[in-house]
Amino acid sequence: MKAVLAIAILLVTFVAASAQNEQAPLLEKEISYKNWTLKDVRTGEDRELRKMIAGKKLVMVIYYAPWCGNWQYDLRFLNKFYEKYKGDGLEIIGVGHYDPVATMKSNLEQFKIAFPLVYASEARGDRLLTDHYKYRTQTGDTRKWGSPWYIFIDPAKVSAKGDTLLTKTHIINGEMIEHEGEKFIRQKLGLPATETKVVVASNDKIEVCDPAKPDTSLKKP
User: Fold this and answer.
1) Strand 117-119 to strand 58-64: parallel, antiparallel, or no bridges (unpaired)?
2) Could you give the CA distance from residue 161 to residue 179 in angstroms, rounded to a whole number?
3) Cα 182 to Cα 83: distance, rounded to the nearest angstrom
4) What are the distances in angstroms from CA 14 to CA 7, 50, 143, 221?
5) Cα Rg of the chain (Å, integer)
6) Of 89, 102, 147, 173, which one is least surrounded by beta carbons within 10 A?
7) What proportions of the chain, in percent to the nearest 5, are helix, strand and coil?
8) Is the pLDDT of residue 18 over 60?
């Protein structure tokens, strides 16, 4: 009886832990993605997406909530990718949601984010009203908060006129799988493939996008 109980506890623990892991594959999806003009987190100035992608080979737009542990975990390699590939034509743009701008600035400073950040909302009550929610649900994202959520833009394929930039592109409905993301970036930038050591994250301590209990440990052994 004790053995059966122990197995049941282990199964419940495994399911709960697995549900917290928001890593997701990079997929191509149909999506009507529009141009935007948003305020810069650092300066408060207007930034237009069309202008930000000009002259780039690949643009990675990431929608995030500053308090989200999944976003904070991905920052480990997002900062690394930006520094490593910006000279080859990569741009990364973070679009902040669901927290005051002051918190976004603290997040920027705490994690030493080097790439551009803009913001589109400041209140958690706006969750169902944002373009972020509309876009990610279009592509099948069923998470409550959807942080982080990635969309990739190939500037060479962007419509020259009109508000709609793309009707089909690659997205990630969750955390990026690091080695998969870097492989995709190198392909799109025209760089040779490299051997990558694949590290599979264990699910026994994965952070959760829980606004009530944000986990900032960033430990994913």
Assistant:
1) unpaired
2) 35
3) 13
4) 10, 44, 19, 15
5) 18
6) 102
7) 35, 25, 40
8) no
Whole-angstrom distance, CA of residue 94 vs CA of residue 12: 35
**Core vs surface per residue 61-98: b (16+ CB within 10 A) or e:** bbbbbbbbbbbbbbbeebbebbeebeeebbbbbbbbbb
Amino acid in the structure at residue 145: W
More confident residue, 210 or 131: 131
- Burial class, 136, CB count within 10 angstroms (exposed 0-12 / middle 13-18 / buried 19+): buried
Q: Check: CATH 3.30.70.890 for 24-188?
A: no
Q: Give the β-pairing of 117-119 and 90-96.
A: parallel
Q: Which residue has the higher pLDDT, 19 or 135?
A: 135
Encode burial over 4-40: b for 16+ CB neighbours within 10 A, e otherwise. Answer: eeeeeeeeeeeeeeeebbbbbebeeeebebebbebbe
d(CA 64, CA 214): 14
Residue 218: count other Cβ atoms within 10 Å of its Cβ: 13
**Strands lying side by side in the sheet with 90-96:** 26-34, 164-172, 149-153, 58-64, 90-96, 117-119, 37-40, 46-48
- Helix or strand holding residue 118 (H, E): strand 117-119
* pLDDT at residue 10 tops 90: no
Question: Any bridge partners for residue 96, and if so which?
Answer: 64, 119
How does pLDDT run across 97-135, given as a tens digit for each residue?
A: 999 999 999 999 999 999 999 999 999 999 999 999 999
Is the overall model pTM greater than 0.90, yes or no?
no
